[in-house]
Amino acid sequence: NAGVTQTPKFQVLKTGQSMTLQCAQDMNHNSMYWYRQDPGMGLRLIYYSASEGTTDKGEVPNGYNVSRLNKREFSLRLESAAPSQTSVYFCASSEAGGEDGYTFGSGTRLTVV
Amino acid sequence: AQSVTQPDIHITVSEGASLELRCNYSYGATPYLFWYVQSPGQGLQLLLKYFSGDTLVQGIKGFEAEFKRSQSSFNLRKPSVHWSDAAEYFCAVEGYSTLTFGKGTMLLVSP
Questions:
Q1: Dihedral of alpha carbons A58, A111, A3, B54, sign
Q2: B23 to chain A nearest CA, in Å?
C-alpha cells in the first residue's frame, strides 16, 4: 500500500543508548517531517526536510539529528537517549506547499528507561 | 510563527447529537487549514482541508468545517455523532513549509 512506513513500531532504550528511527515514503513527495507526540501537547515538529539535500530544525530539535538519505527516506537519530525523549514519533511527507495535507506513518512508540 | 488553539481538551457528546469542535489559528497570510483524527494507538487521518474558495468545506465521515477569517477560526462540525467517532481531533495550520498542530480535543461519545 502506498504511504509512509516507519520502523520500528516499538522500542525500549536505556538512558545513553543511541538508535535511529527509519522512515520511507513511496508517494514521490518532496518534503518529509519528524514529529513527536506527547499527552496533552499535540504533535510538535522536530526536524523537516523541504527537499532532498536539505534539512531544517523545527520546534523541538535538541537531542536529535536527521538525515535525508534520498527522496524516499528520512531518518531520525537519537545519539544519547534521555527519559525526556520517551514519546511517540511520527514521520510524515507532503508535496511542496503542503496544500494537500501531510500523510503520516503509523508511529514509533519509544520508551527510554 | 503560526499557532493553533483548541480550547476544549475533552468534549462528551451523546450518540446522535450534533458536534462542534473549536479551533482558532494565528498566521500572517491566508492559511492552509486542516483537521486530522487519531484513533487510540493509530496514526493521523486527514478529515478535511481548506486552502481557498468556499469557506464551508466537506470532508470524510460526514464532517464539515467552516473557515471564518474575521474570527480566525476553523471549527469542525458533524450533524449526528456515531460511537465510532470517539477519537482525538487535531486542528492544524500550514505555513512557512511546516504544519503546526493544536493540542487536540478528545471526543467521548456517550450512549
A1: negative
A2: 13
Over the stretch B4-50, which tens digit does the pLDDT of each residue have? 999 999 999 999 999 999 999 998 788 899 999 999 888 899 999 99
Q: Would you list which residues of chain B are within 8 Å, Cβ to Cβ, of chain A?
A: 9, 32, 34, 36, 42-44, 46, 49, 51, 90, 94, 97-104
Which chain B residue has the Cα nearest residue A59? B100
Distance (Å, rounded) from C-alpha A83 to C-alpha A16? Answer: 9
Task: Give, as one character, the DSSP assignment of residue A73.
Answer: B
Residues of B in contact with A101 (CB under 8 A): 34, 46, 49
Contact status, residue B20 vs residue B77, Cβ threshold 8 Å:
yes
State the sign of the Cα–Cα–Cα–Cα dihedral B3, B71, B50, B28. Answer: negative
Tell me if A5 sits within 8 A of A74, measured CB to CB.
no
Other CB atoms within 10 Å distance of the CB of residue B63: 20
For chain B, report the end-to-end CA distance as a whole number of angstroms. 41
CA A103 to each of CA A10, A25, A49, B75: distance values in angstroms, whole numbers, following the listed order: 20, 9, 14, 22
